[in-house]
Design goal:
By secondary structure, this protein is an alpha+beta fold. It has one domain (2-163): 3-Layer(aba) Sandwich (Aminopeptidase), CATH 3.40.630. Helices cover 29% and strands 38% of the residues. Helix 4 links the parallel strand 4 (75-81) and strand 5.
Length: 165
């Protein structure tokens, strides 16, 4: 397995192998934020196929409560591994370690990430990797479905942080 920063040619492969909800590519939106300097979009590869991704958002979490609780804390966002049978094989851990290393290279001493309250498997992984709870919050996002309808989503989450020193 290798982990790379997403390149322009990777977006189509991500769309092919890791579907995103809605009419607009979630991968293209992440790549666009990277191009604007707002984030770094990391992709995990096995045999030239994308099998996982995460975005390190340099400006932090979108939730105001999280930003107030830990100003300036970059967020590891949207970690995912596909197909499902590849989970629990170290891909997610490798993506997190790669994101942490990018933060260290910028002199950042703490990073955070959100985990849905109904995702104990992910919460256990983050705890094993040294992440501790900071604050509970509601993650809100929207997407346009294939019929052009805007779908609003709300998820109860905990924001976790890790000291990188």
């Amino acid at each position: 397995m290798k982990i790379t920063v997403c390149g322009p040619d990777d977006v189509a492969l991500l769309d092919e192998y890791i579907a995103s909800p809605g009419a607009l590519s979630f991968h293209a939106r992440r790549f666009a934020r990277q191009e604007q300097g707002e984030s770094t979009y990391l992709v995990a590869w096995l045999a030239e196929r994308p099998v996982g991704h995460t975005e390190l958002r340099w400006g932090g979490c979108d939730a105001a409560a999280v930003r107030a609780a830990r100003p300036g804390c970059p967020e590891i966002n949207g970690l995912g591994v596909w197909p499902e049978e590849l989970r629990s094989r170290g891909i997610g851990t490798s993506l997190i370690h790669a994101a942490e290393e990018l933060a260290r290279e910028r002199g950042i001493t703490v990073v955070g990430l959100g985990v849905a309250k109904d995702n104990p498997r992910a919460a256990e992984l983050y705890a094993r990797l040294g992440y501790t709870p900071l604050i509970d919050y509601y993650d809100r996002w929207s997407y346009e479905d294939a019929d052009g309808v805007l779908r609003e989503c709300v998820e109860e989450c905990a924001f976790l942080v890790k000291n990188l020193l």
